[in-house]
Amino acid sequence: MFLHLGSDVVVNMADVIAILDLDVTSTSKITREFLAIAEDEGFVVNVSEDLPKSFVITEIDKKSRVFVSPISTATLLKRAKSNGGISEIDYVK
Fold first, then answer.
1. Among candidates 47, 54, 58, which has minimal Cα distance to 18?
2. b/e map of 7-25 (b: 16 or more CB within 10 Å)?
């Protein structure tokens, strides 16, 4: 099953590690540091130039990727569930 992250970007649900809300998680210093390091090391893929709302951490071919998406976590989770990609979700605020 695949998850559409915006624009023309889709990822395999089997590669998804986490779907995180950017506003909620970016209040943490650790998350800001993680995103800065990931960007410095070239792991970040901006899905579009629209205002980012979420980021999706994946491992594709044993390489980490962080996709920054303009789509909310709620919408991404609905898409994941409707595609049969996940059956149970741990939602953390």
1. 58
2. eeeebebeebeebbbbeeb
Domain-embedded: residue 90: no
The answer to whether residues 16 and 4 touch, using CB atoms and an 8 Å cutoff, is: no
Q: Which pLDDT value is given to residue 88?
A: 55
Looking at the structure of the chain, the number of domains it has is 1
- Give the per-residue pLDDT at 48: 93
In a domain, 89, yes or no: no
How many CA atoms does the CB half-sphere of 22 hold within 13 Å?
16
pLDDT tens profile 42-77: 999 999 999 999 999 999 999 999 999 999 999 999
Domain range for 22 is 2-82
CB count within 10 Å of CB 81 equals 13
- The verdict on residue 55 lying in a domain is yes
Residue whose structure tokens are 């950017």:
22
